Amino acid sequence: MQPFSYAKVLSQAAAIATIKQDKTAEFIAGGTDLLGLIKDGVQVANTLIDINSLPLGDIEFQTHGIRIGAICRLSDVAFHPQIQECYPVITQALLQSASPQLRNMATVGGNLLQRVRCSYFRNPVFTCNKRTPGRGCAAISGYNRMHAIFGASEHCIAVHPSDLAVALTVLDAVICIQSAEKIRRISIHDFYLLPGETPQTENLLQPGELIVAIEIPDFAYKSHYLKVRDRASYEFALVSVAIALQIEQNIIKSARIAFGGVAPKPWRAWEVEEFLKGKAINKATFTAAAELAIQQAKPQTDNEFKIELVKRVLIRGLSTSCRG
Question: What predicted TM-score, i.e. pTM, was given to this entire model?
Answer without folding.
Answer: 0.97
